[in-house]
Amino acid sequence: MNPVLFTPLKLGEVTAANRIAVPPMCMYSAKIGVAQPFHLAHYARLAQSGAGLVCIEACAVTPEGRITEGDLGLWSDECEAGIAAVVDAMRTAAPGVKILIQLSHAGRKASRTAPWLGSKPLGIAEGGWRVRAPSDIAFGADGPRPLPLDFDECGALVRAFAQAAKRAERAGVDGIELHMAHGYLIHEFLSPLSNTRIDEYGGAFENRTRFAFETADAVKSAVAARTAVGLRVSATDWVEGGWTLEETIELVHGMKRHGLDFVDVSTGGLVPDARIEEAPGYQTSFAARVKAAVDMPVFACGCITEAEQAETILRAGLVDGIDVGRGMLDDPNWGWHAARALGLKAVPGLAVPPQYERGLRL
Ligand code: FNR
């Protein structure tokens, strides 16, 4: 039987050669939002991994929307040129790969040091900036108190997402993933733990999801139909009183109605003290619940590291696509090795980079 992992997957008008996706992973190595030579090498390498889809890391839609000073951005012509160069490097390295980019705003989790420096809040005196969020509730005990966004600023940020989406499309990506997960701005609107607003953006589900839907609509209208648009969502906050799986399913239903093409289901990130036990496939059951409820391509992520594990999940019909994140950093030829492990002699639809053919022969 042919492995399901190596069958094509359609996201809107975009067809990926297989169901392996590299999820967005911040490298914190940009300068004023602009991609550097590191990114060209890194993304060219991931483009050659044998994955059908590679999603470029979270790109901030405004400078204040960066987690760290090193985040990629997409708010200026310089940023756009940097992403265009990254996309070019990826297409040169692997003509068949489909390229997504994640658009994000870090909300109250902005202005921090890189993970290898402790992810500590970066004060204004140290080059940081005032963090903005739906409400003035800090992230964790050491987090700065955010200045709540006023109504007009919410509209301006929705437009910033749309503008960044246009830039991404001009830079040549095949699709856009809206970051609504991991405790960043859009997730902060969704969760009652971080959103205590009393205007149209807070309170009932309809209000907490308003920013998300406005963003989805603005981005959809900003790009052509050929550009796939999807979302990444945290299916639970892992704490009492937080955003729930049931709300996630409702949100994804709505996103389907609003014309989005795929959903990538993650969890957590809203509060620092949530208890999350990472184990193989620990988030897959959340993605499977979404898949069972909504007719839309669903990706699972989280500790899926083995080809057989990915194949078993797909064969059971739990989800449509598999994210391999840290596994790809560990082994950037993961896709080729997965094909070999599942008994294939080639990765259908993707050419072995001719320069590596003698080493990667299956
Ligand atoms: C991440 N993750 C992440 N998620 C996201 O939505 N946007 C991002 O930019 C990042 N950045 C990031 C950087 C690094 C170094 C890691 C390791 C992770 C989360 C990532 O996409 C993925 O969901 C998790 O790593 C879980 O999948 P794996 O790694 O277990 O396959």
TrEMBL record:
The keyword Flavoprotein applies. Gene3D superfamilies: Aldolase class I. InterPro entries: Aldolase_TIM, OxRdtase_FMN_N, YqjM-like. Coiled coil: none annotated. Its cofactor is FMN. Keywords: Flavoprotein, FMN, NADP, Oxidoreductase. Residues 5-338 form the NADH:flavin oxidoreductase/NADH oxidase N-terminal domain. This is NADH:flavin oxidoreductase/NADH oxidase. It comes from Sutterella massiliensis.
